[in-house]
Amino acid sequence: MHEGTAAGYDAVAAEYAARLFHELDGKPFDRAFLAAFAQEAPPGPILDLGCGPGHIAGFLADAGRQVTGIDLSRAMIAEARGRVGGADFRQGDLCALDVPSASVAGVVAFYAIIHLRPEEIALALREMHRVLQPAGRAALAFHVGDEVRHVDELWGVKTRLDFHFLAPAYVEGALRAAGLRVLACSLRPPYPPDVEAQTTRCYILAERPD
């Protein structure tokens, strides 16, 4: 599943990692959101879904959490393993996780569901619900809007990727339909162009009910 997305990120993985591995340094909101998540999620392992080069997993590991990063792209997993020593990484699909039910305390998906069609988003969120233990937490981040941006290159590297911008109300509804309770939803404007793409961002915290 999602071979095109995997191939697209395989092509750009090295440049992506070189440019964005340290992006959290310029994003205080994101650091605070992730730090609170690391502190408030119940004891147990955390999954970083769509982990890319591993910077989110590394941040959570530095906060004292046991983290496994999962990504479709073999090249991204190779980048993560070479850059982050405090977490485990493996290839996988967030719509079909090779993880036992009710086995993790938290899942993080930063800009991962933006590559999914609506029916795939529903499946991914059901998978999050399945693998979370009762009271486990889910943290999502995505671009806000109603467009699909297709790119044939990033930073001068040829690739093919689609980025689905999403409405917060839609994602909240999909979380509830998957059996998760929405705890908080926050929007923020973009940081400067040298930090990130100029899009509004949404951050949602959800929980699997007891």
Set down the secondary structure blueprint.
Elements: H1 3-20, H2 28-40, E1 46-49, H3 55-62, E2 67-71, H4 74-83, E3 88-91, E4 104-110, H5 118-131, E5 132-143, E6 148-154, E7 157-164, H6 168-177, E8 181-188, E9 201-207
Parallel strand pairs: 1-2, 1-4, 2-3, 4-5
Antiparallel strand pairs: 5-9, 6-7, 8-9
Helix pairs in contact: 1-4
If you had to describe this structure to a student in words, what would you say it looks like?
With about 210 residues, the protein is α/β, with parallel strands linked by helices. It has one domain (about 5-190): Rossmann fold (3-Layer(aba) Sandwich), CATH 3.40.50.150. The protein is built from 6 helices and 9 strands. The strands form 2 sheets. A 7-stranded mixed sheet has the order 3-2-1-4-5-9-8, with helices on both faces. Strands 6-7 form a two-stranded antiparallel sheet. Helix 3 (about 55-60) links the parallel strand 1 (about 45-50) and strand 2.
